[in-house]
Amino acid sequence: MKKWTYLLLSVLVFTSCREKLIDTADLNIPERLVVGCFISPQDDTLYATVTLSRPLYGQSIFDDWQHPKVTNATVTIRSASNSAVFSYNTDLQRYILPATAMPIVAGQTYTLEVTTPDGKRVDAQCTVPSATNLQFEAFGNIVAPQPGGDTWGRSINVDFRWQGQPDKNRFYRLNYAQILEEGAFGGEYWQNAYLGATQFYADTERENKRFRVFERVGLVFVGGDGYRLRIKGVLQELDENSYRYFSSVSKQLQVGADGFSEPVVIFTNINNGLGCFGASYQYTVLSDTLAF
Q: Which CB contacts under 8 angstroms, 24+ apart, belong to 148-152?
């Protein structure tokens, strides 16, 4: 009896080590359209991407080139009184549409439809957040270097604040940059431009209350004295589609491709397909000038 038990365990261990990864071809799952389009009244050009789905395993989630691109789709956006068709840009490998052809207006609802010559059709809908007085403010103060320390290792405290609105279903994404006003490195440097570092907030627990984000960050290309800079904050109020999609992607990027980590289900609002059609309204603020 023990002999057969050991043999069974050996077979189980052996077969588990040689487990075959199942892909969409094995399951006869048809390819689906994957659509990405995010609109805002502040954009001068609208962009959309259309690709095909692919197996989850065996490829890196960061290798976008492994998603087969669809270049012959008809991408149409509609409002209550207007419609316009995107054109495919070979250089950008995206569908583009001048915002003058479809002005994006705060508070309005838009529909996106994508069709392909082989009969695939998907659609989605989103509503642009209304323009409100969020009282978005940015503050900063320089952290003095330690005595005898390296003056190139400067840091600053950044402080962003905005007023929550009387609706618990409001969602935000914050990003910020440091802007050197002169010198060889003058210009903008985005401190947390990567999606994995971008911060998301929801009004579910702060309805009608003030939001505050306080961080200490290292400064880039600042050394010695005589430098002047400002902090630029960009706050996007997201519709729920964008919030759920971007926050789930951010969590998945943090998990990475580790096969031993719990996967994150990526949100989609594309009917009969995958991806997201979402909207935002953007607020920008500059701090006072900080001098070293």
A: 151/223, 151/224, 151/225, 152/222, 152/223, 152/224
